[in-house]
Amino acid sequence: MKIGILGFQGAIIEHERHVAAIGAEPVIVRYREQLPELDGIILPGGESTTMGKLLNRTGMMEPLRDAIAGGLPAWGTCAGMILLAKRLENDPARYLALMDITVRRNAYGRQIDSFSTSVEIPEVGTGQLPLVFIRAPYITETGAGVQVLCRLDGHVVAAREGNLLATSFHPELTDSDVFHRYFAGMCAAR
Ligand code: GLN
Fold it and tell me: Which residues are catalytic?
């Protein structure tokens, strides 16, 4: 199974390591020609504005949108979640705009802009899962077809809509492979 990682900017090698660890083949994706070979794609954390510019400049925005709209499983972590969202509460920009969620960028503000915690997410795996947040967005509204996977202090921080998975946090920065296994399951089920 080939799992792509959008390779412009951000936490690329961290995802690569986890994908390899679960026995899938990581593919760093920088060209539209690479899209057809993939079983799924991860949009990493980083800076959504920068990734959006690079997607446009390289001509990859539309082919990537088409591939995901056509069923390619996609998982956005943090900035990647911003790329997936149909609506951004505090930013006029729109990127892939595929997932029926409203996202607030940098939602935790300056005071607690980075933190970690752990929670149980029964849909994803057993036991406590470590969650790492870095200048994280969260989801303020979900459409009818969106399944909320995790709430933290009342805010939605993980959700799924069919072939789309979005997390405010960074599983790739932890030792846990649980989220990568869950996503690989989505790719296998395609
Ligand atoms: N705040 C960043 C953005 O808006 C996301 C931060 C992250 O991905 N760690 O793109």
Answer: 78, 170, 172
Domains delineated in the chain? 2-188 (3.40.50.880)
Q: From the CA of 165, how far away is ligand 1's center (Å)?
A: 16
DSSP 101-151: EEEETTTTTTTTSEEEEEEE-TTT-SSEEEEEEES--EEEEE-TTPEEEEE
Say if CB 119 and CB 151 are below 8 A apart: no
Ligand 1: which atom is nearest the Cα of residue 105? 4
Q: List the residue whose alpha carbon is closest to atom 5 of ligand 1.
A: 79
Ligand 1 center from residue 186 Cα (angstroms): 24
To test the ligand 1 pocket, which listed residue (49, 53, 132, 135) has its Cβ within 8 A of the most ligand atoms? Answer: 135
Q: Evaluate if pTM is beyond 0.90.
A: yes
Give pLDDT tens digits for 109-149. Answer: 876 789 999 999 999 999 999 999 999 999 999 999 999 99
Res 80: pLDDT = 98
